[in-house]
Structure prediction request, 377 residues.
Amino acid sequence: MFQIWRMESDSSTDPAIRPAGRGAVSNRTGRFEALDRRFEADGWDRPEEEQVLRTHVSVEIPRSLITYNRSPDLPFDRSINPYRGCEHGCIYCFARPTHAYLGLSPGLDFETRLIARPGAAKVLERELRRRRYRVRPIAIGTNTDPYQPIEKEHEIMRSCLKVLRNFNHPVAIVTKGALIERDLDILADMAGRGLVRVGVSVTTLDARLSRRLEPRVPAPKRRLATIAALTGAGVPVRIMTSPVIPGLTDPELESILEAGAEAGAEAASWIMLRLPLEVSPLFQEWLAQHYPDRASRVMGLIREMHGGKDYDAEWGRRMRGEGAYAKMIAQRFDRAARHLGLDRAQPGLRCDLFEVPPGESSQLSLFPKGFHAADHG
Prediction:
């Protein structure tokens, strides 16, 4: 049984733990757990023994890496994830429920008990070499961020990018992490062949709100600087106003798009806040702690878009919602994007360049790069 931490306001979090710099305010038990661990005061509490909640990284050797989907409202049919869990700690992250499959909490566990997959690049290469493999763009960052802080040490994303570059394989990346600038050497090379595009998510321009919503994500200005760095290197970038949070970040929609355009973004997209499974109670706890005066309005607008529910998982509705409010946000976005020239689609990624390079066991690998047998009789 794993340890679940607790704040005084929630019985599932150890009061001796101080989750400073974290998004979730509790560690609610995952939906698959048969037991719910709770902490009860025994009269011997010692505040001076409080401990800061640290990040713990485990290692997983993956047997497979590419995950396929058939969702009609996603622009990709395959993706890879270098990490499980995300230290960025975005309270609104729709990927939080995936931690429940590991027997961990979608709350604080999701952002503090992370799993790195150091063998990912080798597995990816093996899968791309299969004779039955048919190339289509791979998406990275659609679940957890490949450029979260632990990537600086583990460099799993960089290793995967090297494999994709070697195969001339197209890739679409989504991130909030400024660490992507480290890989500009690879990304610029791939962009020159039409093999990569990047989406950078900016939820708000308010640094204080951002620190509460997404505590370990680079500040909004820093993300805009990342957009400028990527576009300056020739990498196509899309500004993502995601998620739009009703009654909290929606007034900034036009300002975010304008800032993205000024930074060099060539396209834009948006997604409405999604609260699947454990995300809803975690988000409501966060609202009650940080914005109690707005909580009822925020949740009221969300339920208005989903037929009275916190979330509707139906394809075609889950990303945008329905009703007057959802329609108004869509119209505002369309108008602002058109005015700023961000209403264009990003260029398609090239699949025709895909080529399986010689393997380590191939005799061709014995010869220097650039060697052609026909030239040497």
